[in-house]
């Protein structure tokens, strides 16, 4: 199931472009989060009850027959304790806190450039405007020969190794030796804070219909969402929205509720509430301060949409405010608070469950941890992602505002199911897919492709013809495991769409990538079909 778990076909980063500020690596400790921002709490404990672990470690450290590392033993003990709670209460070592904080805060500390490793060459493919690299004179197309005193040209380096060399403390300097055409240039870059937009792209699919892709709910997501709407609604009194939350693992709860406040016009409308054994109920309601007039809404979810994504989708579904399209979501309905420990590490502890407006908890059972962590594989194996399954009847039945039955304790089930296309698991497709970024770069390097004035013109004028596709197959055969031969028509169709989207990304960045690839996306096309139907979406939810 490794290929199944790792398959992420919609992200430009998955095609080989990385931000030099850092790599966003998903782990148990920072995925699927609904994190609530609260003042740091203090807890009074009794040494008689809670000092046994420290006492035990001191005895082992002082008396054990062999040399041991007391710090490692302590961390293992902590993790073993947390393993007996829930899957989302985790210990965060001090050395990991910065990386995790950067993901949630929406800022990275780095040089502000996008890299691409092509064979044995580290290339600069884009430089962030107003970032440290731009200020220092780094240019697109530069080839990095050396980072500080570490040669990187002609070496077999992994991307994460390059990233680690470029990252560092805010305000420190990294020295690069780059090859620019025929000249070697020394560039000193002072590392800075690089904003990372959690709204990956936003563009108009059709007149009056916008598409917004949110990749996580960081501290800046609401701001990013409003900035995206600024561009979408220009000159329009109302805009319908497709909000794409597929593969969005969650983040800050308040960012999701802030966005919901723009979708619901009424003030003081309950969006979600949280409650725990030692935490009183907290209600999150709409503000009633709408900036834009949002019409009909379609929310796209899949089996990797979790937590804050489910909060947003659940509220819209409970009030019949829009249509939920895709596949059943992850099923994570626990809220964490983070507590600082003395050595710089932290405890992210589950303190409450969250409930949608109808009162349903969407948290999957976790009494069997192995089953919980293998849930995605189970969905593949049992065919759930390929065909719609009837929800298991249980006592956990709730009703939307217009009387439709919805179910708790197992994620958000969509109103319209769109199956996963098994072609994306084909081994030959996956092998060829890995060569697309390198091929496109080489193709553009060797062919003087005229740059279209706009994306629409590019889409009309550029196609992946037989000559380009044959060149791609020859490149893949020469540089990898592919053994040649023509793929079948369906695989060829997918590859052509990916190659064109990748070329579009080079010229028009994320908008070019998504706008082109979404043309072949069944879930997006279903949302367009529903929202462009002359009958209003509200008629889909007749009173019962």
What does this structure look like?
The chain has 544 residues and is α+β, with helices and mostly antiparallel strands. It has 3 domains: 107-195, PDZ domain (Pdz3 Domain, Roll); 199-418, Alpha-Beta Complex (2-enoyl-CoA Hydratase, Chain A, domain 1); 423-526, no CATH class. It is 34% helix and 23% strand. Helix 9 runs parallel beside helix 10. The protein is globular. Mean pLDDT is 86; it is low at 1-30.
Distance between the termini: 42 Å
Tell me how many strands there are.
24
In what range is the share of β-strand residues? 15-25%
CATH superfamily of the largest domain: 2-enoyl-CoA Hydratase, Chain A, domain 1
Show the helix and strand layout.
Layout: H1 2-6, E1 18-19, E2 33-35, H2 47-50, H3 52-63, H4 70-83, E3 90-92, H5 94-105, E4 107-110, E5 113-118, E6 121-127, H6 132-136, E7 143-147, E8 150-151, H7 159-166, E9 173-180, E10 183-190, E11 192-195, E12 199-206, E13 209-214, H8 221-232, E14 239-244, E15 250-252, H9 253-263, E16 270-276, E17 279-285, E18 294-301, H10 308-318, E19 323-326, E20 334-340, E21 346-355, H11 369-373, H12 375-381, E22 397-399, E23 405-407, E24 416-417, H13 427-433, H14 436-446, H15 455-461, H16 466-479, H17 489-517, H18 522-531
Parallel strand pairs: 2-15, 13-14, 14-18, 18-19, 19-24
Antiparallel strand pairs: 1-5, 3-21, 4-11, 5-6, 6-7, 7-8, 7-9, 9-10, 12-13, 16-17, 16-21, 20-21, 22-23
């Amino acid at each position: 199931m490794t290929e199944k778990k790792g398959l992420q076909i919609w992200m430009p980063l998955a095609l080989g472009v990385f931000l030099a500020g850092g790599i966003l690596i998903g782990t148990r400790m920072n995925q699927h989060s609904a994190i609530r921002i609260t003042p740091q709490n203090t807890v009074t404990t009794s040494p008689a009850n809670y000092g046994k672990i420290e006492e035990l470690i001191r005895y082992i450290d002082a008396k054990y027959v062999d040399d041991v590392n007391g710090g490692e033993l302590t961390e293992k003990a902590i993790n073993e304790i947390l393993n007996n709670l829930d899957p989302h209460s985790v210990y965060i070592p001090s050395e990991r806190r910065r990386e995790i904080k950067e993901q949630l805060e929406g800022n990275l500390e780095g040089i502000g450039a996008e890299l691409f490793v092509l064979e044995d060459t580290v290339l600069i493919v884009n430089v962030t405007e107003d970032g440290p690299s731009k200020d220092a004179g780094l240019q697109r197309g530069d080839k990095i020969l050396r980072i500080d005193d570490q040669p990187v040209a002609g070496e077999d380096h992994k991307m994460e190794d390059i990233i680690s060399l470029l990252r560092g403390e805010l305000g420190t300097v990294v020295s690069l030796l780059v090859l620019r055409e025929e000249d070697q240039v020394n560039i000193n870059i002072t590392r800075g804070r690089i904003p990372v937009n959690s709204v990956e792209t936003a563009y108009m699919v059709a007149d009056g219909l916008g598409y917004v892709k949110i990749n996580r709910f960081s501290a800046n997501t609401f701001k990013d969402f409003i900035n995206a709407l600024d561009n979408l609604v220009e000159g329009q009194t109302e805009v319908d929205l497709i909000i794409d939350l597929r593969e969005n693992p969650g983040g800050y709860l308040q960012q999701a509720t802030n966005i919901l406040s723009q979708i619901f016009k009424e003030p003081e409308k309950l969006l979600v509430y949280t409650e725990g054994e030692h935490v009183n109920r907290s209600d999150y309601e709409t503000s009633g301060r709408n900036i834009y007039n949002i019409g009909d809404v379609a929310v796209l979810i899949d089996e990797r949409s979790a937590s804050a994504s489910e909060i947003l989708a659940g509220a819209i579904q409970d009030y019949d405010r829009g249509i939920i399209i895709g596949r059943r979501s992850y099923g994570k309905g626990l809220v964490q608070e983070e507590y600082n420990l003395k050595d710089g590490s932290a405890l992210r502890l589950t303190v409450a469950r969250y409930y949608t407006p109808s009162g349903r908890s969407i948290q999957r059972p976790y009494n069997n941890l192995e089953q919980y962590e293998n849930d995605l594989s189970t969905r593949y194996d049992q065919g759930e992602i390929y065909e719609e399954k009837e929800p298991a009847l249980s006592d956990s039945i709730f009703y939307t505002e217009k009387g439709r039955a919805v179910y708790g304790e197992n994620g958000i089930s969509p109103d319209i199911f769109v199956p996963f296309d098994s072609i994306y698991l084909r081994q030959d497709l996956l092998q060829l897919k890995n060569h697309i970024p390198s091929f496109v770069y080489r193709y553009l390097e060797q062919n003087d492709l005229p740059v279209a004035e706009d994306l629409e013109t590019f889409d009309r004028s550029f196609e992946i013809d037989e000559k380009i596709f044959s060149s791609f197959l020859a490149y893949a055969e020469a540089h990898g495991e592919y053994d040649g031969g023509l793929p079948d028509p369906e695989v060829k169709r997918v590859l052509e769409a990916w190659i064109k989207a990748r070329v579009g990304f080079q010229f028009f960045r994320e908008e070019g990538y998504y706008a082109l690839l979404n043309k072949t996306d069944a879930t997006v096309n279903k949302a367009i079909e529903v929202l462009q139907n002359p009958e209003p979406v509200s008629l889909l939810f007749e009173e019962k």
